[in-house]
Amino acid sequence: MAKGEAIVILTGAGISKESGLETFRDEGGLWSRTRIEDVATPEAYARDPKRVLEFYNMRRQSMVDGNIRPNAAHLALARLEREWPGEVLVVTQNIDNLHEQAGSKNLLHMHGEMLKARCATCNDVIPWEGSLGLENSCHACGAVGRMRPHVVWFGEMPFYMNDIYAALDRCHLFISIGTSGNVYPAAGFVQHVRMRGVGRTVELNLEPSEGATLFAETHYGPASEKVPAFVGQLLNAGRIS
Ligand code: BV8
Description:
The protein is α/β, with parallel strands linked by helices.
């Protein structure tokens, strides 16, 4: 077993699709019905906070009430973290809590978390499972109508970027799962790894992403099949290359 080889895994909405959560850019996905400019930018929130809060209340509700559970892909990544001798870091663009439910511990939500709210006045972040409205007040500073979803909108800086680039700079294997490769800076991570000239890059997706040609290795099909198979092979081989 090769000691200490580090793995970074980027996940997107595709890994949660088979758990019952919608993706964004697939046929009938979230952005086919709602414009990003209307619900997922700071300008939209400033212009019409009620509409933005409702968009996230609807999605949070389906996550909490819909009894959404991790699928075999999330579980396989948690198994890899438990059984691999080196570091395994999951960087997710997703704002659901399916990686946590599956048991992943070394996990960074670069686009935030649906089940948390943040005060736009004092930045206090608290768990939040119900609806968010303008009547809500901040438990820390008392500001009213300033609680927003703790998610990263377009034009806002994603979280943990320093930690993410440090992990990309030391990884031996970068795996991208269930993402269309449309949104930056996440879509640029594979290029960042390639520029180092070392390390293996793998895409596991339903179909080729925008960045498919940048990956040395690709496997296409449902995440619930491809991810457990890939993790099984990796653990059997006990080494990355
Ligand atoms: C930033 C959180 C810089 C909220 C999200 C002008 C002004 C400012 C910025 C920009 C600009 N122009 C461009 C940019 C950059 C912008 C960007 O990339 N825009 C794109 C649209 C061109 N990025 C940003 O704004 C980012 N911030 O750049 O900051 C900066 C610098 C200095 C100072 C300040 C700022 C912030 C981006 C984050 C936005 N927030 N989400 C929410 O969820 O509502 S993005 C959103 O897209 C989600 O996070 C989502 O995860 C992410 C990516 O989408 P995917 O996960 O890939 O989902 P998608 O539906 O696209 O694809 C699904 C894939 O799964 C498909 O390939 C499908 O085939 C596959 N699939 C389906 N089923 C399965 C499957 N695979 C396997 N198995 C299956 N069963």
